[in-house]
Amino acid sequence: MRPNILFVAAEAAPLAKTGGLGDVVSALSEALNSDGIHATVLMPGYTAALDHAEKLKPCGRLSGLPGGDAALWCGHMPDSDVEVILLRNDALYKRAGSPYLDADGNEFADNGLRFAALSHAAAQLASGATDIELPHVVHAHDWHAGLVPMLMREYGAEAKSIFTIHNLAFQGNYSLACSAEFGIPEHVRQDASVEYWGQLSFMKAALNYADRITTVSNSYAREILTPKFGSGFDGLLRQRQNDLVAVPNGIDTLTWDPTVDPLIARNYDQEDLRGKQVCKRDLQKTFGLPFDPFAPVMAMGSRLTTQKMADVAIEAMPVLLAAHPRLQIAILGCGDRDIEDGLRALATNHPDRVGLHIGYDEGRAHCLHAGADMLLHGSRFEPFGLTPIYSMRYGTVPIASRVGGLADTVVDAGSVEQPVVNATGFLFDGEAAADMIAAVERALAMFVQPQLWRALQREDMTADVGWEKSSQLYINLYRTLIAEPAKAMFQPVSRERTTRPVEQVSMKRA
Ligand code: ADP
After folding, report:
1. Are 329 and 220 contained in the same domain?
2. Phi, psi angle pair for 358, to nearest 5°
3. Which domain holds residue 369?
4. Distance 1 CA to ligand 1 centre (A)
5. What is the pLDDT of residues 40-61, one digit of tens each?
6. In the chain, pLDDT over 70 holds for what percent of residues?
7. What are the pLDDT digits (tens) for 77-88?
């Protein structure tokens, strides 16, 4: 039997992407299809998705959804065999720009409604509301699809459900007064299963009702059971520990491959890094930095938020620039306004040393990874951390926080005096500028030792980072779930309040 899996997500690159979620949804569905699984992606019919999905045709209609009736359009992901179903309700999704934000960078006021509609659509599909083949497993990703497992039970779907936490800090918490508008059944409203400190929480609904919960690295799976990283849900997650599985992410090794990447100035491989010099020159030009083949170039490319310690980088960078007169820094990102402003000021104060591009730009991201010598990637918490893995593929050595997936994937190189064999980068503990600076200092010291640096680059460029192993882990999980008997009468796992309130994290992902 060929398992039929329905992915439900707000992003799938290249149709929609603001961060790692979009990359993972499309790369994983692609890997599963190559391994004989029929994985289809259900996502909103954003303008860009309708424009770029291939072979689109109408394939059904759904009624009774929050926000109104919707059409289903079936097609394929660009340049891919993966099938995609676009949920088309133009009033909800046909908007320019980011999946979540308006032109001024503010979250759409109706995001709760938009993703409640997506969750209802998935549950209806799984319960046979259309002619589309029924899935064996519905695999919901992040809070946007958080209501799916609960609604599947309401609609009487027989499929099993998996919920993957890509980032526990984005929770989809809304006023309980929205419950009726979001189509939350009355009896669910009465219990505490979706209630989070007086709010309705998509995340809590997912954690309570999914048959299995997965998350994207071994370390993050352990961390989220603790108050420090549990974002208020560590208690509930500890109760569901037996159903919580870590499946580390992989990366799309074709898209991020210096030997064939069409978005970089010259292709290269680990045997011959001359092309990387050409890419470095291109990076210096693109980011307005003087051409200097021997200058250490440190990149930073991420959402510009406190999660990514961009605030700490603003403190650390002037110190590093003062101490290392040849150091150049190239920054690509967008996010919190005050952090963007802080970086603008840094670039203004160091015009020949700091190249800054505020914005979301896939091409520039490739240019950055290929051309830089090292990548600074601080994180206060990091479920997986794709960006440092991308940089590694291009022989750009990561300097990262020892948290979550980064602690699993980056092997610390030690020091020039005591280098570590088979290392891939530099790790630091702590959230102070001094912690970050100390790690960059170690990297800069090793950069001027060509043999040690070359060994690091070789290790980075040959690391096993594809989806092969993890695709098999998901397949085993799907098969186990499919073989399990259905739960006869579901009781929410926790009727108690979650452990503590957390400040609602901004949904801004772009
Ligand atoms: P997160 O999912 O927390 O944002 P990851 O490092 O796992 O972090 O994934 C981020 C993804 O988003 C990577 O593909 C990265 O290249 C991309 N990205 C982030 N910011 C930008 C930007 N400003 N321009 C282009 N790509 C970006």
Report:
1. no
2. -90, 120
3. 274-462
4. 36
5. 999 999 999 999 999 999 999 9
6. 95
7. 999 999 999 999
Q: Tokens at residue 392, please?
A: 């590694």
Indicate if the pLDDT at residue 508 is higher than 60. no
Domain count, the chain: 2
Q: What is the pTM of this model?
A: 0.94
Residue 457 maps to which CATH number? 3.40.50.2000
Tens-place pLDDT, residues 204-219: 999 999 999 999 999 9
User: How many angstroms is it from 170 CA to the middle of ligand 1?
Assistant: 15
Q: Could you tell me if 210 and 96 lie in one domain?
A: yes
Cα distances (Å, whole numbers) of residue 468 to 6, 36, 68, 386, 460 = 20, 12, 40, 16, 18
Residue 424 has pLDDT above 60, yes or no: yes
Distance of CA 245 from the midpoint of ligand 1 (Å) = 24
Query: Would the CA dihedral through 118, 119, 124, 127 be positive or negative?
Result: positive
Q: Which atom of ligand 1 is nearest to the CA of 509?
A: 4
Q: Which residues pair with 174 in a beta bridge?
A: 200
Cβ < 6 A, ligand 1 pocket: 19-20, 23, 301-303, 332-334, 360-362, 365, 384-387
Q: Are residues 19 and 130 in the same domain?
A: yes
* Å from CA of 42 to ligand 1 middle: 22
Tokens representing 456? Answer: 């690091």
CA 388 to ligand 1: nearest atom:
6
Q: How many angstroms separate the alpha carbon of residue 302 from the centre of ligand 1?
A: 5
